[in-house]
Amino acid sequence: MLKKNVEDLGNIQGKRVLVRCDFNVPLKSGVITDDTRIVAALPTINYLIDNGAKVILCSHLGKVKEGPNEKESLAAVAVRLAEKLGKPVNFVADYNVTGEAATAAVAAMNDGDVVLLQNTRFRGKEETKNGEEFSKELAELADHYVCDAFGSSHRAHASVEGVTKFISAKGGINAVGYLMEKEINFLGNAVENPVRPFVAILGGSKVSTKISVINNLLEKVDTLIIGGGMAYTFFKAMGYEVGQSLVEDEFLDYSKEMIEKAEKLGKKLLLPIDTTIAKNFPDPIDGPIEVSVVDSDKIPADMQGLDIGPKTAQLYADAVKDAKTVVWNGPMGVFENPTLAAGTIAVAKALADIEGTTIIGGGDSAAAVNQLGFADKMSHISTGGGASLEYLEGKVLPGVAAADDK
């Protein structure tokens, strides 16, 4: 379904436009260590500035479990954003987010000005439980609303979904930004109208987080590749010795069902044929570690699997070679460790070499591709880990659903 985008707002000269961004950036001692999400929001913000809108930005940052605090303030974001935009960003530091200070800052805006509100999660459950009052207060600051926070679009929060009802009630438009539109196009098309062969690669540590994804993707893909920690649950379900490897016993039956489902549907389900093993999990995670490689059904009882082996890396590279659409979510092993990153690097390299559309589904796989220097070789790197997973599951995302249809 096509959603109204930022260009469908019409003449926005002098109009107040509230934009929900995803500025949930990593901070170390108050310094932003990765500004990818800020950069991703720039096209939408610049479009609004260039067309004379009064641009009011909001976002969450962190989990805010202890209540409002300076460590999770958006102050550092305001500084970095001003640098990137090349113009001042008026940061409203008030923990109330939409109080008198915000109202006054918005009232004083000239066309093309930018105001950044404080962390929406400083309003606690009013934000996370989609509180009506907070939703209404946000809407009162604006004429139109734009959601450009794909990473938060799977949550029905006040600043993502609740606000849209009040914008509609006063005749305003709810649109998606350029980033949201790109995510919807890439992920939506990949799942609903893929150019075939369509291959999905699922990694990461747990089956539990990818349960519905495996089930849904098996019906859509031609080949499903499994790597990472979740492979050991499949191995145990097949009767292999998995030693000390990570296993979710409560998903053994489910894993068997998925193997049977793939067979029944005539889909290829690829599991690692060899495994890189070690005595213990690396500590620290990037510290030196002694490893060996064994066939996947020969893991010794006192060892644990921590990455796919070289034969598997070759098998997976061959499997994606002729693919026209590939979706990858989750690393093949403990990629944070140089010794155990080999499998993830091999998959990233294989994807970098293919002609087709390559979509990296956020989270750890996005971090891996960025860290390993393959980002510019991929068609699309999703900004939302959880949101992209839910999209691949076939779920309706509240932040997408709430935007007006074209």
Topology readout:
Elements: E1 16-20, E2 27-28, E3 31-32, H1 36-50, E4 54-58, H2 75-85, E5 90-91, H3 100-107, E6 114-116, H4 125-128, H5 132-140, E7 144-147, H6 158-169, E8 174-176, H7 178-192, E9 198-202, H8 211-220, E10 223-226, H9 231-237, H10 252-265, E11 268-270, E12 274-278, E13 292-295, E14 304-308, H11 310-320, E15 325-329, H12 342-352, E16 357-360, H13 363-371, E17 380-381, H14 385-393, H15 398-401
Parallel strand pairs: 1-4, 1-7, 4-6, 5-6, 7-8, 9-10, 9-15, 10-11, 15-16, 16-17
Antiparallel strand pairs: 2-3, 12-13, 12-14
What does this structure look like?
By secondary structure, the protein is of the alpha/beta class. It has helices at residues 36-50, 75-85, 100-107, 125-128, 132-140, 158-169, 178-192, 211-220, 231-237, 252-265, 310-320, 342-352, 363-371, 385-393, 398-401; strands spanning 16-20, 27-28, 31-32, 54-58, 90-91, 114-116, 144-147, 174-176, 198-202, 223-226, 268-270, 274-278, 292-295, 304-308, 325-329, 357-360, 380-381. It has a six-stranded parallel sheet, with helices on both faces. The protein has a six-stranded parallel sheet with strand order 11-10-9-15-16-17, sandwiched between helices. Strands 13-12-14 form a three-stranded antiparallel sheet. Helix 3 (100-107) links the parallel strand 5 (90-91) and strand 6 (114-116). The protein is elongated, with a radius of gyration of 23 Å. The chain starts with 15 loop residues before the first strand and ends in a 5-residue tail after the last helix. The relative contact order is 0.13.
